[in-house]
Amino acid sequence: MSGSNSFDPAVPAHDPLAMTVHTPAVTLPDAQRKRGRATMLLVLLACLAPVAASYFLYFVVRPQTRSNYAELIQPTRGLPADLPLRSLGGQPVPAGSLKNQWLMIVVAGGDCDSRCEALLYDQRQLREMMGREKDRIDRVWLVVDDAPLRPPIAQAMQAGVPATVLRVPREALTDWLQPAPGQALESHLYLVDPMGEWMMRTPVPLAPEKFKKDLERLLRASAFWDRPGREPR
């Protein structure tokens, strides 16, 4: 009979192994691993492509057709994962919690001199100038000493949408942010993108109307991948 040699008559018919078809055990897992790696790579590229494209358009494609007011930091400098941030109450704050928003950063001591007050005022006004895009920007004040905040300044930082106020040792912060030659760390407004990359530093003194144009261009260039992220503190 055709096909009668497909099994051994010596093996009992009820033996469950008699008709088992064996395939190599490693073939399927290896294929699955390869497909998994390829899928992860495609997802990673899909996430990074819009960011890379917007920065490419801003920094490379049309560099001669625009005039930046603020200084571009090239290459950008990433937020250190181990930056020792603390809340005003002394609790540690993960550096990564600052990501997912554009940040306008002021650096100053807790006593906040006249230069500090002027930068904090311009910081608030610049955010308001962004209109409906302002929710994509957080105001951040990094306090580089243990001096208590003067009550009027502390109250102003909580007015409207509260700013993020954190303490950090000056020496640790300088591993990330740096002033222009001949300027103090406290002299500038620093702009950080949602990935934690420091990428702009304003001139001294700051002209808010001019810096506003830089902000508008950056927000337009990143509009298709950046959305309001973390909640302000």
From TrEMBL:
Q: Which of UniProt's keywords are assigned here?
A: Membrane, Transmembrane, Transmembrane helix
Q: Which residues are listed as membrane-spanning? A: 41-61
Q: What is this protein called?
A: Cytochrome c oxidase subunit I
- Origin organism is Ideonella azotifigens
